[in-house]
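[agent] plan:
  1. take the single chain provided in the ticket
  2. run structure prediction with default settings
  3. attach structure tokens to the ticket
  4. add a short note for the reviewer (M.T.)
[agent] executing step 1
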Amino acid sequence: MPDVKGLVFDLQAHSVHDGPGCRTLVFLSGCPLRCEWCSNPEGWEPRPRLMFSNVKCKQRQWRCTRCVEACPRGAIRVAETEAEEQLVIDRSLCKDCTTFDCAKACSVEGLRVCGREMTVAELMRILNRDRQYWGQGGGVTFTGGEPLFQKDFIRELLRRCQRDYIHTAVETTAHTDPDFLLSVLPHLEWIFVDIKHMDPEQHREKTGVPNDLILANIRRIARANWPGRLIVRQPVIPGFNDTAENAAATADFLREVGLEEVNILPFHRLGDSKWTQLGLTYAYSGQESPPAETMEAIQKVYQGKGLVCYVGYKTPF
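[agent] step 2 finished; step 3 output follows
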């Protein structure tokens, strides 16, 4: 059987935030959600993305026009005023580009391609190389994007990880085919899944999809007699889901399906520059993280409902 290929947009070693122990994070492209605060918008599409860094670009310093000349579609031009970024890119012209000649012509990574095709065997070589640094309890966490979006790729990756005795976790939206989700459970040991809002219409407004499939899939996992660990997370987004009412509704749902823990995560703006590099407008560019008092108040709501609730990205595993 030919080795399955998939699209990976980032690899990060030595992570201690997304599962037990020290881990390697594998970021897979493709996602059905469009969260307005997303920190990885470069992983939305199941294709490579062109990113432009005005900080790294040397056009004004060197009068460089290599990328302009290299682009076969005329999608790039030098800015006409100092107020603009150094290059102006017509993204509609480069949407279907597969060669990325402009990025190849750039020697300073002002333009770069995010996302590369890898085989399962290539990725497994990296994971088996990294495992000597994980220590006891470490492993791999597949994230994204939505790691279950590329079905054939993730299924084979999980199968081979299990074969090689590698601890596996996924960070999923749970907005995926229920049968496929249940089919990969035997190859998984941990699952992280967000509940971004309990109201389906408010969920749709900020993420592009309702929450019914997500909640149904959480219920399916909780009742599947699966021996792994399911951790529900709530990213706390100011002005969206940071109310006691939403926390109480989420807690009631978790108790109803038999779950006992929740991890609340304060909003951050770490993805701001990525939106700019993709030519997108980030709606939360001026938003501050929720104050500690807000996080503590939400934590108390969950604790008052009998749930174990911890705050922040360093979960006490």
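[agent] step 4 note for reviewer: Residues 35 and 308 are 26 Å apart (CA to CA).
[agent] ticket updated
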